[in-house]
């Protein structure tokens, strides 16, 4: 998860066949405002990106999720070692199941 030069939040996932998806927040975000961003995966091939409980983008990526030497990064674009997030990140959580839209909304309001 990172914020690009256009100030849009983006999430990328890669597979072992050099496939990649990029999910992007379509709503306008403002500096100085807290946002809740959620990415879900259905355990198969569907990824969804939510902003404050509202679905922003989705895409499919089949195949095996790639392991890379960069590791998990939150707040910068690992592939280019750039687009660092200039702000605060709080309450990162990982769940062992896909959250439903209703569950994402509930968590975003906590």
Short description:
This protein is mainly beta and 110 residues long. It has one helix spanning 101-108; strands at residues 2-3, 9-14, 20-24, 37-41, 46-51, 54-60.
Describe this protein's structure.
The chain is mainly beta. 7% of the residues lie in helices and 28% in strands. The strands form two sheets. Strands 1-2-3 form a three-stranded antiparallel beta sheet, with no helix packed on it. The protein has a three-stranded antiparallel beta sheet with strand order 4-5-6. A hairpin with a 5-residue loop joins β2 (9-14) and β3 (20-24). The chain is globular. The mean pLDDT is 84.
Helix count, DSSP H or I runs of 4 or more residues = 1
Q: Order of strands in the sheet with the most strands?
A: 1-2-3
Computed structural class: mainly beta
Rg over CA atoms? 14 Å
Global geometry:
globular
Secondary-structure element sequence? EEEEEEH
CA distance, first residue to last residue = 21 Å
Which strand-content bin applies to the residues? 25-35%
Give a quick account of the main beta sheet: strands, pairing sense, barrel closure. Answer: 3 strands, antiparallel
**Assembly annotation:** single chain
List unreliable stretches of 5+ residues.
none
């Amino acid at each position: 998860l990172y914020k690009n030069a256009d100030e849009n939040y983006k999430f990328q996932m890669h597979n072992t066949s050099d496939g990649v998806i990029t999910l992007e927040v379509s709503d306008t975000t403002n500096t100085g405002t807290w946002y809740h961003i959620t990415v879900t995966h259905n355990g198969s091939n569907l990824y969804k990106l939510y902003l404050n409980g509202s679905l922003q983008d989705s895409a499919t990526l089949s195949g095996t999720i790639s392991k890379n030497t960069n590791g998990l990064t939150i707040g910068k674009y690992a592939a280019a070692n750039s687009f660092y997030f200039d702000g605060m990140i709080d309450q990162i959580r990982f769940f062992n199941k896909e959250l439903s839209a209703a569950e994402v909304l509930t968590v975003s309001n906590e």
